[in-house]
Amino acid sequence: MRPGAGVLRAVVGNKKALAGAIMLAIFVIAAIVPQLFTTIHNPNQQFAQMLPPGSGHLLGTNAFGQDIWTQLVYGTRQSLFVCVMVGVLASVVSIIIGVSAAYLGGLGEDLLSLLTDVFLVIPALPLIIVIAAYAGGGKMPVLIGVLVITGWSYGARQLRAQAMSLRNRDFLESARVRGERASYVIVFEILPTMVSLIAANFLGIALYALLTEAGLQFIGLGNSSANSWGTMLHWAQTNEALQTGQQWWVIAPGLAIGLLGASFALLNYAFDEIGNPALRPVRRRKVRR
Q1: 5-42+60-279 sits in which CATH class?
Q2: pLDDT of residue 62
Q3: Name one GO molecular function term (predicted).
Q4: pTM of the model
Q5: Does residue 3 have a pLDDT over 50?
């Protein structure tokens, strides 16, 4: 079987996962080539203020005279970039700490488990706000770092539990008997059996990063000059968009955040099927008479 064939089959065979994959693909295309979705190539270009939706401006213009649809399309890149980067980095930290703690055992397991428990019980939102406020949340590396620090622990606990169930399996015992190093066993023996859980963990962290990044931008702890959905919500709230008839300035980024988050959640159905065969739909064979 080709690598990734099982994932592709699970996505195509599940209507919810397929819908999520299609939605995510649209957002990825918009992030890479936003010119395909709008004829205005500068999201900060100014027109007449507060124009209603029409042929020239699909969602109208805001209080600054900026085209709302163009801002929405160009804001996809930063929002999706933050999701992917935080998802990848936090997943790597989760794998290193969670799987290592389960396989190594002894004092190393106790220390890594204690570290995971500490981050699990720390209130995430106040910690995020404090770090972002004092470390300069408007800087992209700081924002990503804050989300990674606060987003890895739950996945590490899940991966540790799964790795502990594999720790005494025969194929791992044979690898140890062959004299393989711990790093080899973890990377080439344990992780390939946990691909579906790692992918599900990535999607969960990406969803967390999407919502939290938008929330930080909304309350003014991000870069207010950046093009992102959270920044659109921030300026819409600041300029009382709902009270002044600029509803699409609020609805559009909120709907985009919801749809991207839904695509992550729907894709999770495919990885649930891979990890748990009992969830796979039963396909009945037609009986020939």
Answers
A1: mainly alpha
A2: 92
A3: dipeptide transmembrane transporter activity
A4: 0.83
A5: no
**CA-wise closest residue to 194 among 95, 88, 85:** 95
Q: Which residues contact 247 (CB under 8 A, 6 or more apart)?
A: 241
CB 142 within 8 A of CB 204: no
Return d(Cα 219, Cα 230) in angstroms, integer: 9
Are 92 and 129 in contact, with CB atoms under 8 Å apart? Answer: no
Task: Give the per-residue pLDDT at 32.
Answer: 93
3-state DSSP assignment of residue 136? coil
| Residue 121 confidence (pLDDT) above 70 | yes
Alpha carbon distance 261, 211 (integer Å) = 8
Q: Is 61 helix (H, G, I), strand (E, B) or coil?
A: strand
pLDDT class for 281, splitting at 50, 70, 90?
A: low
Judge contact between 203 and 264, C-beta under 8 A. yes
Residue appearing with tokens 């065969």: 277
Terminal C-alpha separation, the chain: 34
- The widest CA-to-CA distance across the chain, in whole angstroms, is 74
Identify the CA nearest to 206 among candidates 128, 261, 131.
261
The pLDDT mean for the chain works out to 83
Report the b/e string of 163-175 with b at 16+ CB within 10 A: bbebeeeeebeeb
Q: Where are the domains of the chain?
A: 5-42+60-279
